[in-house]
Amino acid sequence: MTTRHATAGVTASGLTKRFGSTVAVDEIDLSVTGGVVGLLGPNGAGKTTVLRMLATVLAPDAGRLDVLGHDPAVASERLEIRRRLGYLPQSPDLYQSFTAFELVDYVAVLKEHADRRWRHRECLRVLELVGLGDRKHAKIRSLSGGLRQRVALAAALVGSPDLLVLDEPAGGLDPEQRLELRSLLAATATRGTVVVSTHNTAEVAALCDTVVILVDGTVRFHGSPDGLRDLAAGRVWESDQPAADGARSWATPHGAYRHLGTLPAGVSPAAATLEDGYLLAVRDPS
Known about the structure:
Layout: E1 9-19, E2 22-33, E3 35-40, H1 47-54, E4 62-67, H2 75-83, E5 85-88, H3 100-110, H4 116-129, H5 145-156, E6 163-167, H6 175-189, E7 193-197, H7 201-207, E8 210-215, E9 218-223, H8 225-230, E10 236-239, E11 248-251, E12 257-260, H9 274-283
Parallel strand pairs: 3-7, 3-8, 5-6, 6-7
Antiparallel strand pairs: 1-2, 1-4, 8-9, 10-12, 11-12
């Protein structure tokens, strides 16, 4: 077992990653310690690349990265990070012939947990956490997509990691399972840091202490959910027809149109939401 350290966060300075001529992550600075951090951004913004670097799967091309007080560029420190890290990739590749228990136990072995008795107790604990205690002997191939996602999450939770890095963890989960995931991540964040990529602003509003928005590989916003919502304060209005001068306009379910941008003269602003703030941060960097 690894002794816990006080440092349980991530600091990045000038972090950069290129794939050929494409700059996926462009000199970003980032510092998060404790709580749940929501990583938002459009497709292709660089979210998955950032998470893979935090999880030590990818090495940066430039910049400085500190994970849990260690430098992942140093082999011995990278190993220490991985002992204290839980990682759920966007599309986990699970061994189909394994049972749920065998898959989680395999991940525990990879984390160098040598005590077989402890390991098996831990596998049962995390499978129970994700609601799969009664399916522990089911083959991965026999499970639905949502249940496979929960097996992968259980594997990420082995050893109560100080840093949990999750890429779209709610994919394939039904609404009840999403609520259970939210509760689980909130509990995990009380003893460490959770960094989660998602497209769901409602999940961010309900769960996250910090929001980071990536656009074109750069950080467009880094702050609290309330701070993101406040970006749109006084810049949202509704009317009974589209607005040509709005930065963004769309029809609402009750037949009106909602607009983002510079408030027209004589129009009263509508209450801003987190989604409004996100849309403005993505479309209007000012």
